[in-house]
Amino acid sequence: MDLSNAIRVWFEAVNYGEPLRVRTALHVYDDLFEIDTADDVRRVIGDPDAIRMQALIMRERIIGGDHHETHYFIRYRGAVYCDLGETNRCFQLWLHALDLQQKHLCALHPSTISTIGAFIDTFILTVNEGIIIANVDGVRVTPLSRKYLMDVLDKTVFELERFNSSGMKLKKDEIFEEPGDDIRCCNFLMLASLQLILLVGIYSSSSVNSIDVSGLRLMKSSKIRRLSHNDSKLTVNLETEADEKDFDIALSDIVTRLILVSKCLNLYPLHAACHDIDKPVTTRFPCACVITMLIDNGIDVNTKNSLGNTPLHTVLLSNNPRQSVIKLLLQNGATLLARNKENDTCLELISETLPRAFRYLKLGRYLTLMSLAANAVRRNWLKTVYKKIVPKELFAFLDLH
């Protein structure tokens, strides 16, 4: 950027037209007011950051918050700060860009998806670098604020809610390049939400050295309080961790919203959380803390996906089924005799893939008489026959088998 020419042009510009009637200072732009007089221009001389912020302020006012160039240059300036190690300023600018995109653009717009993706990549990179530096040098790294993780998680789920509330009627010819892009975007946002839940769960705001990379535990909330999208609890200052209970309530609320909107959009977050993905430790699945969080907030552990697989099927069909995850699902009501479209039950898959795990898992305690009876009915009776005898309330349970 040619800063000297910018100053020269601004000096000329203040001599034209009328003064601005209203000037608003935004915190994201360092609480600066837009320059309106020659004195204002003189105050920013010698301050490159202030000059660049003034350019962002002017661009947003003149071409509007809905223009792609406004979003691009805000994100660009944030990326520069990120490269300089000032991640907080980067996240503040990117959140502002995301606010503008969700305010002015349609749901699942590629620009919005790109911004959320940039957040995910930067969060993961920041945490991984913190772990590496802490392990190699033993230096305490400035922790990543959970506030930003929560803010982006909230907005990611909100993007799915926007798509769902719009009736999924988008100008697909203008927005998406290929058929099915909207489905891919929804799946991306669901996976991004799970990755953010994982980062929130394993990241300790007190010290990078205390990160629980296994992500096996996450504080549970017994009650869930409904919050609006703009509830201040979602943006509470979490740096001090003065009120962990409010944090847990806010996180539980967002997870509940994710579960509800996923059900409406035919997404399967628990299956995704159980799917074996070979990625860095900060985004590795299956993850017990994410699974526990989803279950604690009311997700059905026996939901079937398009292949007829339950979450337990998903774990067992992976390359390296984790016994701890299998046990976690069983303890929370997963049905051993659930049958997929390939006619495989979870019990049969365990017998084939983990024959030595029978003693550890103690499968007998998870077999119920009701499940055995349902399995026998489905095996030996035609659907048209048993539907005339069995109460309607049991149809869903029978379909599971």
From TrEMBL:
Key words, A-Z: ANK repeat
Keyword Transit peptide: no
InterPro entries listed in its UniProt record: Ankyrin_rpt, Ankyrin_rpt-contain_sf, TPR-like_helical_dom_sf
Highest taxon above the source species: Eukaryota
Entries under Gene3D superfamilies matching the protein: Ankyrin repeat-containing domain, Tetratricopeptide repeat domain
Ranges occupied by ANK repeats: 307-341
SUPFAM superfamilies hit by this protein: Ankyrin repeat (SSF48403)
Listed Pfam families: Ank
Keyword check for Glycosyltransferase: no
Protein name: Uncharacterized protein
Organism per entry: Wuchereria bancrofti
